[in-house]
Amino acid sequence: MAGDAGRGVDDPAVGPGGEARELGETSRTTARAAGPAFVHPSAIVEPGAILGPGTKVWHFCHVRSGARVGAGAVLGQNVYVSGAVRVGDRCRIQNNVSLYDGVELEDAVFVGPSVVFTNVRRPRAFRSQHGAFGAIRVGRGATLGANATVVCGTPRPLCIGAYGLVAAGAVVTRDVAAHALVVGAPARQRGWVCRCGGDLGLADAPRPSLGERRAPGGGGRRAAVEGRWSCAACGDIYGVEGTRASLLLGRGEGEP
């Protein structure tokens, strides 16, 4: 990653006294924005990067040309965004995260401190793999806990479903279902979570999911439980069928 080239007082993101200021529609020498965006003086936003209105780019970030960051997003200290990356509206990316080519975040994704995204499955220092990067898609409202690692998918993207929750330190090597809670290395599902982040519990009598029953003799996959699940925190009701959870009745104030 390139070092900090610095910003002078003539830079549109720096006020007369050297303080950070908003970067707006008229400040196109550093980035194009659909409305006011804030860029800290120590950050680098290359020409051709697009920042949505209300987005904040904090200390020592580097946003490459071609990158698109939606409205109301926050890039914490030392975040790197490569040129082919897409970041949705209202995403929060905490300190020390690098988003390499092939990563796409839908709206309202939370990325915890020092989360790692890869884009090559078997890297070698002496072998260039530009143009053959793997991909990662993170669905709307999903959360990735601190120090989690997400290994890219190839030839198709690895997908983390909407409102999925990846526990701190988990290593994700395969798709995560919408609303699934995954933990460990490699990450495995340990439950379901509401869009508000609360745990889901069974709201009525369980029934085993066809195709998910334990094999004779105790081996094979653990039986999934179908039925209605509810969130104690906000009251939302979900239906679980097989390996999928979907909202049936929204009572709370979760992300719409």
Largest sheet, in brief, is: 10 strands, mixed
> Helix/strand-derived class?
mainly beta
Catalogue the unreliable spans.
1-34, 208-223
Query: How many strands in all?
Result: 29
What order do the helices and strands follow? Answer: EEEEEEEEEEEEEEEEEEEEEEEEEEEEE
Explained architecture:
The chain is mainly β and 256 residues long. The chain has a domain of 63 residues. The protein contains no helices and 29 strands. The strands form five sheets. The chain has a ten-stranded mixed β-sheet with strand order 1-3-6-9-12-15-18-21-23-24, with no helix packed on it. A seven-stranded parallel β-sheet has the order 2-5-8-11-14-17-20, with no helix packed on it. The chain is globular and about 55 Å long. The relative contact order is 0.08. The N terminus is likely disordered.
